[in-house]
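Design a sequence for this backbone.
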């Protein structure tokens, strides 16, 4: 049977067998989150033909159907017929609904023929006839099915076929039924015995005294098979206590729950349910049904426990607590821990859903509340955090130990909150038990160290210290505990250095510092840690821009992997130049970076032992390797000394050599940069001094998607084929399909000027230079820029005629903001978000005016409501963000990132 459907009973009707099915017809989550939850819409009961039921619970459907079909054409009144009658009566609902009908005359079973006597013709009777029942045959097959729905007919049938009981029961027993309840002599009780109760409830006495309600027989009794009548009577008592004869929807929920289990767990839940107000019962039982309440062990709770827990759930929050209650009982967590969770929810976050529940046997509510009181003045404090922290105490059992320790330290509320959040979020324990134990000890050892370092840091940098430490833990989460121990002291040292003026409090330098620590050891790491403060300032600055920071990190990682000693020397003496070259190196693909670095290491000035050469040899080697554009590291005094124009003393010569060796680091960086540019200029021999070409070459090398078509276009563009895109077959095909679009106006755009208080006169025009178009993300620092995740989309704007970029520039031609516009398949003008996203409302307003004028010039509709867009004031339309009811075609590009149409929001984010 499909998920969500439960077989409740098998019903015999006058002509067919039906399955009583309980089916989920409503969505539990939709119901609980609705304003007026109606749990009556959660389940429904229906009768379907038994043949359509594909799921077998505890019966052999094939045997049952064979018996039922046999009874449609009964030819003999014998043990075989009685056997099939027994199967149907045992496996179907013991309720009798058929009343006498003219179409069905009373059941009359012919009696046995008279005993044969000896005659002249038959002097002897057949041996054994006296003690063997006579088989009675029907001349016309008899339909017995409707008579099994009538109680009188069934009694009459069983009474008349009494001689066949032993043989028929033996055949029933052969199928595996337990027949211990069969009386040794059914003769005296034949009119009182019911096969259903005899087999399923070991009941062989007069059943008249236990007259069961029809709805109990239909919806509850079928689930109680195998229970003695004493237990059945307990469920009958529950039936009356819950008034199930009057509440059909609650009856459906009870029958559904019993279809999963009929253990003591069910009785306990129903008894507690009977003590709750009738208005709460559907909601509570729905939680048990939908959250697997039948899995709860009968030893997990008592009725008193469940009653106590429910008492801590306010009526209006049953919808969000029920799931946590059931899940907690299923998992067998400490009832005290669960109770404390409900108590905390009532105080701090009544709507907390308890979706995540783990066990915390050592939970101490007094210590927990002591910490809550401590962090409550924090600007980060929230009621939800208190409950999530309670939940994490179960997930990370050692967290309670951390909480108790934090109560001993005198930290500000904000710092205390951040430390607890550090341990709660990033120190995952999803690993082997041995590692969890080792890690727990390591973590507990860090807390005193963290507090100790915080005491030496200015209060304004303490939050930054913890947030950065949080990032380091996250980066090293997958590494072994021994490696973390090896790194952690270096991390504390760097953080203490960078958590003070003149460093910024917010930084993205964590990953870059991690690379330095990860790839160095011994003296090399010590050199990094003791580098000048200016070097670490340059490191922080290099990661300030997200896209450029990604490229710098890629480049530094490669440098550290292939020449870490040189990288640390450059970091000490020329950090700005190092990060500039690293960013350039990061634009290369991985195999290109490896190739360039291998070539770099083969350079004469990179060979080991160069620095140890005698002064004259070192001078001659360096002089021989100097090329155009390479920094000359040789001091003037040293040149004069070796040319004979000036004689230096030993001390002067020593200092000059040290300056040469230091300057040699800068020279090596120039050599590496030259090798990188040599790689760039293989296909485009453009000057590296041209800033726009510098960007273009890096961009072409960095992207992978759309890389081939944009390179083809730029080669044609450089060779003077400015109409390459317009002549392309794909472009012509697009123009043919969009004849309504005046291509010349679309390519030229319009020009719009507007005045702003902050920037003065601002001009918006459509960009014509393809290399400027490629900078659409770099100018504003978006994900379409160099190093961004979707930089290939800028190439798509260059390649595809249906996409253009607008730049807003000030009087000095500085780009202030940009907007991507496109034409959809339905000839609509689609306008995308203005970047940077923190652009002022003044600039956004000018863009909106431009969008309208461009749509008007093209004579196509503007995607959205033009009338609302053009309304003045602050009540501009806020179109649903993420609306994708448009299609923008690819022309030459392979892919691009659709940022969704702009909602024309004029909110000033600056």
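Sequence:
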């Amino acid at each position: 049977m499909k998920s969500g459907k439960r077989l409740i009973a098998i019903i015999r009707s006058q002509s067919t067998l039906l399955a009583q099915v309980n089916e989920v017809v409503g969505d539990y989550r939709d119901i609980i989150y609705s304003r007026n939850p109606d749990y009556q819409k959660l389940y429904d009961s229906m009768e379907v033909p038994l043949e359509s039921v594909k799921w077998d619970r505890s019966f052999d459907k094939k045997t049952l159907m064979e018996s039922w079909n046999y009874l449609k054409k009964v030819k003999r009144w014998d043990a075989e017929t009685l056997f099939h009658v027994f199967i149907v009566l045992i496996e179907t609902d013991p309720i009798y609904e058929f009343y006498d009908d003219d179409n069905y005359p009373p059941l009359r079973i012919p009696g046995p023929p008279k005993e044969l006597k000896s005659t002249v013709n038959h002097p002897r009777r057949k041996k054994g006839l006296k003690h063997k029942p006579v088989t009675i045959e029907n001349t016309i097959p008899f339909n017995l099915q409707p008579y099994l729905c009538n109680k009188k007919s069934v009694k009459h049938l069983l009474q008349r076929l009494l001689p066949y009981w032993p043989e028929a029961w033996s055949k029933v027993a052969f199928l595996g039924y337990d027949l211990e309840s069969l009386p040794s002599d059914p003769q005296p009780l034949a009119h009182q015995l019911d096969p259903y109760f005899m087999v399923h409830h070991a009941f062989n006495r007069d059943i008249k005294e236990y007259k069961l309600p029809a709805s109990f027989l239909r919806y509850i009794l079928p689930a109680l098979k195998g229970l003695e009548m004493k237990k059945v009577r307990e469920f009958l008592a529950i039936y009356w206590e819950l008034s199930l004869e009057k509440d059909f929807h609650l009856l459906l929920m009870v029958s559904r729950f019993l279809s999963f289990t009929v253990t003591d767990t069910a009785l306990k839940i129903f008894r507690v349910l009977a003590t709750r107000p009738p208005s709460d019962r559907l909601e509570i039982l729905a939680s048990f049904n939908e959250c697997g309440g039948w899995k709860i062990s009968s030893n997990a709770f008592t009725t008193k426990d469940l009653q106590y827990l429910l008492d801590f759930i306010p009526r209006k929050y049953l919808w969000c607590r029920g799931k946590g209650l059931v899940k907690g009982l299923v998992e067998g967590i400490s009832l005290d821990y669960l109770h404390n969770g409900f108590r905390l929810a009532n105080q701090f976050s009544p709507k907390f859903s308890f979706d995540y529940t783990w066990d915390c046997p050592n939970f101490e509510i007094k210590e927990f509340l002591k910490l809550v009181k401590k962090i409550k003045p924090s600007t980060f404090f929230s009621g939800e955090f208190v409950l999530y922290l309670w939940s994490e105490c179960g997930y990370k059992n050692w967290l309670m130990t951390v909480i108790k320790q934090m109560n001993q330290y005198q930290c500000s509320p904000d710092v205390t909150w951040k430390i607890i959040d550090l341990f709660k979020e990033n120190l995952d324990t999803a690993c082997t038990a041995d590692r969890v134990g080792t890690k727990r000890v390591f973590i507990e050892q860090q807390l005193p160290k963290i507090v100790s370092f915080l005491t030496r840091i200015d209060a304004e940098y303490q939050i930054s210290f913890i947030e950065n430490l949080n990032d380091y833990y996250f980066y090293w989460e997958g590494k072994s505990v021994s490696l973390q121990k090896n790194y952690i002291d270096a991390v504390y040292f760097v953080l203490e250095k960078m958590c003070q003026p003149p460093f910024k409090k917010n930084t993205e330098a964590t990953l870059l510092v991690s690379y330095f620590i990860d790839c160095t050891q011994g003296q090399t790491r010590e050199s990094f840690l003791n580098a000048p403060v200016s070097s670490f300032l340059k490191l922080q600055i290099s990661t300030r821009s997200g896209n450029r920071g990604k490229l710098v990190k890629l480049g530094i990682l490669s440098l550290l992997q292939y020449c870490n000693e040189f990288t640390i020397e450059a970091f000490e003496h020329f950090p700005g130049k190092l990060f500039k070259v690293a960013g350039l190196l990061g634009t290369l693909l991985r195999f290109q970076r490896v190739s360039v670095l291998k070539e770099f290491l083969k350079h004469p000035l990179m060979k080991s032992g160069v620095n140890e050469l005698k002064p004259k040899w070192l001078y001659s080697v360096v002089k021989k390797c100097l090329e155009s554009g390479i920094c000359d590291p040789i001091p003037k005094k040293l040149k004069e000394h070796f040319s004979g124009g000036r004689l230096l003393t030993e001390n002067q010569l020593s200092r000059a050599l040290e300056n040469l060796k230091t300057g040699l680091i800068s020279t090596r960086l120039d050599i590496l940069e030259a090798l990188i540019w040599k790689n760039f200029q293989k296909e485009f021999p453009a000057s590296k001094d041209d800033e726009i070409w510098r960007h273009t070459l890096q961009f072409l090398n960095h992207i992978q998607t759309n890389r081939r078509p944009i390179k083809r276009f730029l080669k044609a563009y450089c060779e003077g084929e400015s109409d390459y895109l317009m002549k392309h077959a794909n472009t012509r095909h697009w123009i043919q399909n969009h004849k309504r679009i005046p291509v010349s106006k679309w390519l030229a755009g319009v020009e719009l000027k507007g005045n702003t208080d902050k920037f003065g006169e601002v001009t918006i025009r459509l960009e014509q230079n393809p290399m400027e178009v490629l900078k659409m993300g770099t100018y504003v620092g978006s994900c379409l820029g160099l190093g961004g995740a979707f930089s290939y989309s800028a190439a798509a704007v260059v390649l595809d005629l249906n996409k253009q970029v607008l730049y807003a520039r000030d009087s000095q031609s500085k780009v202030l903001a940009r907007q991507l516009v496109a034409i959809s398949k339905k000839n609509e003008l689609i306008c995308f978000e203005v970047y940077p996203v923190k652009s002022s409302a003044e600039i956004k307003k000018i863009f909106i005016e431009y969008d309208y004028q461009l749509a008007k010039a093209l004579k196509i509709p503007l995607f959205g409501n033009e009338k609302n867009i053009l309304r003045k004031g602050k009540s501009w339309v806020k179109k649903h963000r993420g609306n994708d009811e448009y299609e923008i075609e690819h022309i030459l590009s392979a892919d691009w990132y659709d940022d969704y149409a702009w909602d024309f929001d004029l909110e000033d984010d600056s």
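The chain has a mean pLDDT of 86.
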